[in-house]
Structures are given as C-alpha cells and as structure tokens.
Write a structure and sequence with these properties.
7 helices; 0% strand; globular
Length: 202
Amino acid sequence: MNIFQYLIFIGIIYTIVTLLSTILILLATLTLHGLRVDSLGTSYRVVITLCNAIVLYLLLSLVSSLTILADQKNRSMWSFAFFSIVGMLTVLWIGTRNVYEKHKSGDYYGHSSRLRDDLIISLAAPALFIVSVFVPIIASNPITNWLFGAIEWLDQVRILGWLLGLIGILIMIAMLEDAFFAFVSLIFVSIRSVIKRESKSQ
C-alpha cells in the first residue's frame, strides 16, 4: 500500500466517521431535548461527551486498522513509522479541529466544562491510537471490523471509492490549512480557562 492509497482510505474513513458523528450527535441532542434535559446540566454534558468519545474511538480504531494493514503489506519499519505518524496526526488534527470549530461558532458558550472534556478527549485520542497500533486488540471490535470491511468494499467500487476518497482528502486538505492554528488556539484557551478558574478560587 502506497501513501496515495493510504490517503484515499483516510479520506473515506473521514467522510464516513463525519457522517456517523453528525447522526449520533443529532440523535443524542434531539433525545435530550425531548426528555427536557437541561443543556447546562451534568447529564447533558456526560451524554454529549460520551458521543464525542465514541466518535473519536471509531476514528482512531479505523485509522489504526488501516495502519496495521499498510504495515502488513509493506513490512518495513520506515513505512510503519511513516504511516503511524500520518495516522496519529490525522486523529489529532480531526479531534482538535472539531473542538476548535465548536469553540469558534460559540457552541461552548457557557459550557466551559464541555470544552475542557472535549479538549482532553481530542488530545488523548492520538496517544490511544499509538498504543492501539502496537496492541491491536484495543481497536478491534465488531463495529470497527464491520465498518472497515464496508470501507474496503467501497474502495473496490472504483468510482464510488475514488469519489468518497477524493471528497475526504479535499476536506482534510482544507482542514490542514488552519489545523496548526486551531491546535495552538485550543492550548491558549485551556490555559486561559485554568487561569480564570484559579483567579476565581483566590
């Protein structure tokens, strides 16, 4: 597997995970509103944070499975290290980008605890990805295995696979343009929130 094939797979994974994330968050939000759960309450925060954690776990497990497959086909330490770094950066960029976009659009206004939770999850995901590459059982579960099989099937359907991969890659390229600034911005936001919390406690 070469880097182009790897990126095509990453693009398909990103497209599918983004779709699943939108559906999951929408269903959770509608259910919570239907149950009249306070959006500032702990229950709401726990459910939304859990949904974000599930999405990031699916992302890192799929990218981990892809990285392991690429290593099995290439059997080179250099390629393994390269694909692992690309996979880790992909998980990091997507996680921090999503948090950055929510913060920029004001979704965290009045929800500083949710910002902190999502930031911790998005920074922990790349570390868990690296561990899962060496301990594949972490990324192995029925849902991930089924999704990865579906992605392999989509890749074999040439037109659809290339289309999904191209869409995903274009989205990722656009995302990378400000991913670094998003990461730096989130670090400053977290530091600022800690300073404010400490100043209030004094």
